Every structure is written in C-alpha cells, then in structure tokens.
User: Which sequence fits this backbone?
C-alpha cells in the first residue's frame, strides 16, 4: 500500500487534489469528512470534546458553529481540539486503509490540514503540500462556508504559513488557478506521473 499525504491550509485546494487521486484509483480519505462523521457517530469523542469545551453540545450533538467560534479565535483551543480528535481520526484511517488493502487496493491518499502536526504524515510514503495565494483562499472560504471576510481571514491566520509546508513536505503544488477544473487537471497530471511507475 502506497500512501500519499495531502496537506495545506483551508481553501488551498486539497479536496481537488484528493479527488484527482480518487479518479486515478486511490482510496481517498478526507480527514475533515471523517472527523464530521465521528462527531455524529463517536460518543467517546463527543464526550471528550464537551469536557474540554463546555457548552458546545446541544441536544446531544456537538454544535460545530459554537465549537468553531471558540477554536478559530484561540490557537491554543485549536491545538487542544486537534489533540482530542487526531487519535480518533487516525484509528478510523487505519481501519479504512486495512480494509482497502485486503480488497487488493494499492494506493491511498490522506487529506488533512494538520497532517504533519498530528503525526499522521509518518504513516505516509510521501507528503504533498498544496499552497495558494491568500486572496484566492479567502474568496473560496467565503463562498464555500458562507463566512465574512474577517472570519475567513481569521481561519487562514490560525493555520500554518506556506513556508511551513515548503519546509515539511516532499512536494509542493501551487494552486494559482481561478477555476477548479484547471487545478484538477494539473493535479491529475502531477499524480499520474508520481504514481505511474508503481
């Protein structure tokens, strides 16, 4: 099993990179999606989040908006949330990769903002960082999540800079494209050459 890690800040284009790998036959694992599934299904994770961030549970469910307001304003709170969630997400990834391998799968891709910080990158054969201009990222976040410009910039500021990814990743893909189609095509060509000989 050859595992490619994909990381980068919110709005950079990680999902498009992951989709291109899925189209090439890889098992595509979106850590953000897995996290949201666990928010609904893992009683243990929900209890641990509630004990650290009192008042974020409404009718037995984590209120993501309330939780987001806390963690995006305070870096230490974001670190705490990541500490809690990473172990649950990591276990789920291991289970999914194991099942895919048993079925004859050869490639897997893991998309995570905190791939390196969580230690998840150690389970990858290579790590690819996706970077993009802040202005492009801001526009995408506003459109995707319905946030204000101030909220979008706060999210970007709370995350690592491009230099962090350039220093810690094996490869960097720059997303300076206005459309998803153009960047998707670039990713497909890039990953085709990367995994073509395997």
Assistant:
């Amino acid at each position: 099993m050859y595992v490619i890690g994909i990381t980068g800040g919110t709005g950079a284009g990680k999902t498009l990179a992951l989709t291109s790998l899925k189209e090439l036959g890889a098992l595509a694992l979106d850590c953000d999606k897995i996290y949201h599934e666990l928010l609904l299904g893992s009683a243990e994770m929900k209890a641990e989040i509630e004990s650290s961030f009192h008042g974020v549970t409404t009718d037995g469910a984590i209120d993501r908006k309330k939780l987001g307001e806390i963690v995006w304003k305070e870096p230490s709170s974001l670190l705490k949330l990541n500490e809690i969630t990473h172990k649950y997400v990591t276990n789920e990834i291991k289970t999914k990769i194991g099942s895919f391998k048993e079925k004859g799968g050869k490639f897997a891709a893991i998309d995570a903002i905190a791939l390196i910080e969580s230690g998840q990158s150690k389970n990858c054969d290579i790590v690819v960082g996706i970077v993009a201009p802040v202005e492009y990222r801001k526009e995408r976040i506003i459109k995707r999540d319905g946030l204000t410009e101030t909220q979008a910039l706060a999210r970007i500021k709370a995350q690592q800079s491009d230099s962090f990814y350039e220093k810690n990743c094996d490869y960097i893909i720059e997303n300076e494209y206005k459309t998803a189609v153009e960047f998707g095509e670039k990713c497909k060509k890039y990953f085709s050459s990367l995994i073509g000989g395997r």
User: Anything to note?
Assistant: The longest strand covers residues 2-7. The radius of gyration is 17 Å. The CA atoms of residues 39 and 46 lie 6 Å apart. The chain has one domain: 2-191.
